[in-house]
Amino acid sequence: MSEKAGNIKPFEELTIKDDFMFGAVMSEEKNLKPLLEYILGIKIAHITYPERQKTISANYGYKSVRLDVYCEDDNNTVYNIEIQVANEKDLAKRIRYYHDMIDINILEQGRKVTELKNSIVIFICDFDYYGKDRYMYTFKGQCQEDSSVYLDDGTLSVVLYINGSVGEINEELKAALKYMAGQAPPEGTYADNLDKAVKKVKINEKWRRDYMTLAMKLDEEREFGKYEDKVSAVREGRNKGNDAFLIKVLSLSKEQFSSICDLLDTYPEKSDLEIAKEILLG
To answer: What is the C-alpha to C-alpha distance for residues 210 and 52, in angstroms, rounded to an integer?
Structure first.
């Protein structure tokens, strides 16, 4: 969700650039399939949705990731599409991580490496990460010594800039990007369909309830995350003669500090997040 903690945007003010609205609109194949076809220049027979706003939480200490739009086609390809407003300066690494998480999710289903599906990760951005003013940047592994040779690992990454002006792209896609950038009224059949879909979501009570539920869940996760950091600091810094400093700098009461220490001693195998949840949930 694009909104900051404690500043959740009202449901009525959501636009296609908000990840919840983007995911809701793209949960219908009639909206998503044309977008994929326009971006990739291909025809897709059919797509399926294993899970809307799919959360991949792998083992091995990986951080879980919530995907805006996750779908598969009937040609052994997985698609992940993200709408990104804030430039966190880590887009390239984020794309790499999403490809990795998709692969891990498939392998954890008991499949072999040879059964990995092709994966396409697409980011639609409100900022020009590469600074070339292009509508679209497409990346695929290429040999440095011979540009005619490709890695052919089944991955493709695409970054779209909604305010771009350089390059040749599908006219319907160009109009859709302008709509995402805030152009009103929308131009083009597809952009008009997106606008109608946004309005349809806004009058749907189920979508409203889903949004509020997700907002509360994200606030809860943020609280867990903040307290997890405190538990981690206590784990690292206690018993070094600076307990008073930790209590002050972490804004903990003596009772809270003592509770964290007791749980760390009693359950040394538990993670910082598990300790944080046990304290916050009582």
So the answer is: 11
Going 98 to 44 to 28 to 48, the CA torsion angle's sign is: negative
C-alpha–C-alpha distance, residues 218 and 252, integer Å: 23
Residue 77: both structure tokens together: 């390809």
Q: Which amino acid type is present at position 75?
A: N
- Average model confidence (pLDDT) across the chain: 89
Q: b/e string for 18-40 if b means 16 or more Cβ within 10 A? A: bbbbbbbbbbeeebbbbbbebbb
Question: Which residues contact residue 47 at a Cβ distance below 8 angstroms, ignoring those fewer than 6 apart?
Answer: 29, 32, 33, 36, 71, 72, 73, 74, 79
Q: What is the pLDDT of residues 138-179, one digit of tens each?
A: 999 999 999 999 999 999 999 999 999 999 999 999 999 999
Each residue of 55-111: pLDDT tens digit? 655 544 445 567 889 999 989 999 999 999 999 899 999 999 999 989 988 888 888
DSSP letters, 73-119, are ETTSEEEEEEEE-S--S-HHHHHHHHHHHHHHHHHTTT--GGGPPEE
